[in-house]
Amino acid sequence: MAKFAKPATQAASVMKKLQGSHIRSVGTVRNYEDRLKQVTKYLQENRLGSLRDMTPTRALDYLRQRAGVVGQKTLDMERQALQVMMQQVTHQLPPGQTLEVIKSTAPTARKGKAGQPTLGRRLADQSRAYAREQMTLIATRQSPHNALATEIAHAAGLRAHELLGLRRTHHQAPDERPVHEMKFFGIRETTISYTVHGKGGLTREVRIPIPLARRLEATRLAEPRNVKDRNIDYQQFYGIGGGQPWSKSVSAASKAALGWSNGAHGLRHTYAQERMATLQRHLPRKQALEVVSQEMGHFRPEITEVYLR
């Protein structure tokens, strides 16, 4: 039987071909490499060859098997990692062709203490979003710098690492991307423009309500500080929480206040659902999805659908 390199070696070899030329984000490279390592372990355990031998048919078989084990986020990450490998490295997928999206069937139920119902349990079972009242309860259980970050993440739909690189737009302009005329409709007049570094190195505009922006500006640092989060370096300009420490703070505060946690990313789900509710009063659903996808930095409405569950 042929001998193959270790899973970590095979995954690193593939990502070396992609880093810089096709994927700019260090975080994405790290995540894809981790997922491809898992795929390679599966191939070796089932004697199906090396990672670069993966075919679209075999990839779908793998994803369907994984659908009953892992959540949608992990499943999507593995599909995307396999897809970009087969498009750009092994050329098993022709340009423009993608892998079928497989839906996770893994259990997602949450339990409170001793199996008893918890505050907001019904909402938690149905969605990853927090109600506004739940977000407020979480913030009251956090230190001031983390509580402010939580309010901002909810109001602007930010990822944990995006909180670290907040800057006023006149200091850091957003990258040029398609802009729908209804982007930030209904909030532009009551918010202040900032930019953040999103996934893939994209610099995008976000809007922070004026009262929150004033509180944020009160924490402005005399000199920016360098912060390392998940092995990635950031330059931080405000004294607020962000990154993994803030994310852990949200989870701990949520469990203390509500008895369960949807994680810090649940705040982005809240933003997406609130914005969709507002925009659908003025736009067809398809256009509303497009606008929200731009506001959240996806630019792919099908990803925004995940936030609406």
What does this structure look like?
Helices cover 46% and strands 11% of the residues. The chain has 309 residues and is mainly alpha-helical. The chain has 2 domains: 7-88, DNA polymerase, domain 1, CATH 1.10.150; 120-306, Intergrase catalytic core (hpI Integrase, Chain A, Orthogonal Bundle), CATH 1.10.443. Strand 2 and strand 3 (203-209) form a beta hairpin. Helix 2 packs across helix 4, helix 6 (132-140) crosses helix 9 and helix 10 (266-279) packs across helix 11. The longest helix is centred in the N-terminal third of the chain and has 20 residues, at 26-45.
Based on the model shown, name its key terms.
single chain, 309 residues, mainly alpha, DNA polymerase, domain 1, hpI Integrase, Chain A, 2 domains, 3-stranded antiparallel sheet, two-stranded antiparallel sheet, 11% strand, globular
Helices and strands, with pairings:
Layout: H1 7-18, H2 26-45, H3 56-66, H4 72-88, H5 121-126, H6 132-140, H7 144-156, E1 167-168, E2 191-197, E3 203-209, H8 210-217, E4 220-229, E5 232-238, H9 243-258, H10 266-279, H11 285-295, H12 301-306
Antiparallel strand pairs: 1-2, 2-3, 4-5
Helix pairs in contact: 1-2, 2-4, 3-4, 6-7, 6-9, 7-10, 10-11
Oligomer: single chain
| Overall tally of domains | 2
Decide which structural class fits the backbone: mainly alpha
Termini gap: 46 Å
Rg is 21 Å
CATH architecture of the largest domain: Orthogonal Bundle
Strand share of the residues? Answer: 5-15%
Describe what is shown at a glance.
The protein has 309 residues and is mainly alpha-helical. Helices cover 46% and strands 11% of the residues.
